[in-house]
Amino acid sequence: MLTITALYASFLSLIFYKLSKNVIKLRRQHKVSIGHKGHKDLEQSIRAQANFIEYVPLGLILLCCLEINKIHPLVVFILGGLLFVGRFIHAKSFTTPGTDKTKRVQGMRFTFWSILLMAGMNIFAFLARFI
C-alpha cells in the first residue's frame, strides 16, 4: 500500500484547493473568465496555482516510486515532508502582494531538494537490484 504517498497527496490537495479558491475568488471579483486581463493580483494567483501543479505531480510520482521500491518508510516520510513544506512555503509566499521573494526562493529550494533526493534514491534502488 502507498499510505505515505496517499497522506501527502491528501495534504497537498488541500493546498491546491486553497490556491484554486483564490483564483476563483479573484476571477469573480474582476469578472475575468480567461487570462488575467492585466489584474496583477489575479495573475499572481494564477501563477501560484500553476506553479504548484507543475511540480506536485512529479514529486508524488517519485514519492510513490520510493514506496514501491521499498525504501525505508521513515526516509519516504521525510522526503514527502520536504516536498510538502517546500510547496507550502512557496504557496504561502504568493499570499502577500508582490510575493515574498525570500519565502518563494526557500520554497523552491525545499521542492528541488525533495525532487533531487527522491530521484537519486529511486536511481539508487534501481541500480542496487543489479549489484
List the helices and strands and how they pair.
Elements: H1 3-30, H2 40-68, H3 73-93, H4 101-128
Helix pairs in contact: 1-2, 1-3, 2-3, 2-4, 3-4
Radius of gyration: 17 Å
Instruction: Please mark out the parts with pLDDT under 50 across 5 or more consecutive residues, or reply none.
Output: none
Instruction: Identify the overall geometry.
Output: elongated
Beta fraction of the residues?
under 5%
- CATH C-level label: Mainly Alpha
CATH level 3 topology: Four Helix Bundle (Hemerythrin (Met), subunit A)
Biggest β-sheet strands, sense, barrel: none
Offer a quick outline of the entry:
The protein has helices spanning 3-30, 40-68, 73-93, 101-128.
Tell me about this structure.
With 131 residues, the chain is mainly alpha-helical. It has one domain (3-128): Up-down Bundle (Four Helix Bundle (Hemerythrin (Met), subunit A)), CATH 1.20.120.550. It is built from 4 helices and no strands. The longest helix has 29 residues, at 40-68. The model has no long low-confidence stretch (mean pLDDT 95).
